[in-house]
Amino acid sequence: MSKIALVTDSTTYMPPELVRKYNISVAPQVLIWGDQTYKDGVDIESREFFTRLKTAKVMPSTSQVAVISFQEIFQDLVEKGFDVLALLVSSKLSGTVQSAMQAKDLMSSSREKVNVVDSQSVAMALGFQVLAVARAIEEGATLKDAIALAEKSYEYTGVCFAVDTLEFLHRGGRIGGAQRFLGTMLNMKPILAIQDGRVEGIDRIRTKNKAHDRVLELVTEKIAGRSPVRLATLHANAAEDARALITRAEQALHPIESIFTEVSPTVGTHAGPGTVGLAFMAGL
Fold this sequence. Notes:
Elements: E1 3-9, H1 16-21, E2 25-27, E3 30-33, E4 36-39, H2 46-55, E5 61-63, H3 67-79, E6 82-88, H4 96-105, E7 114-118, H5 123-138, H6 143-152, E8 157-162, H7 167-171, E9 189-195, E10 198-205, H8 208-223, E11 229-235, H9 239-253, E12 257-259, H10 265-271, E13 276-282
Parallel strand pairs: 1-2, 1-6, 6-7, 11-12
Antiparallel strand pairs: 3-4, 3-5, 8-9, 8-13, 9-10, 11-13
Helix pairs in contact: 3-4, 5-6, 8-9
């Protein structure tokens, strides 16, 4: 039976205990701040990032995982006898899949040991896809089965979130179908979702509390009675609001797994402070 190693990227911001439990390799996205470069979640954590962002005169930008980072991870795993399955952030949000494919191509004779799958998602929706595959591998799934599961798992996941402003998404070029909300009424909270791998505008709500109500309503609609349900928060320096939202979601949706986590610094660069949302997996 082949040994299978899972690789993902830091946009999941998966809790470290789950990363360790399933021996998942996490490739760091890159944060660029002035003349300094940081590895996402390695050299800079979310809390430090948002503290610094409050007083920053220069705004950060991001870059996808470096090709060399993937090459080093892949090569190490292959040399240890693993087949590699990399399940990564949506190619419509990042060049990360492209970096992984370039790294694979540089591996010459061992490239067939590396498999790269586009999750068509981000944050813990991607995280739940990775965990589903990890648990299947733990139960004895073959490489073929693991790849098939990775390729279809996005169908069972989703992300809905409310942002304070579209400024950060617009500036970072990740605004996608939410573009139509730019220049509309002030003091509205845009409700966004990841659909077909990109950010789409769903609704605009006047107050923060009602925006969070709408996020829960949309997630409930998307889950549509499927079970089992797994839930996770995503928040950008808004822990209290995120805890309140997931508590209500747990009461309404009765998940078998509930994870409280933030967004990574690179995701926070695009979402902006105050973002609160839910990621889910349902029916798998």
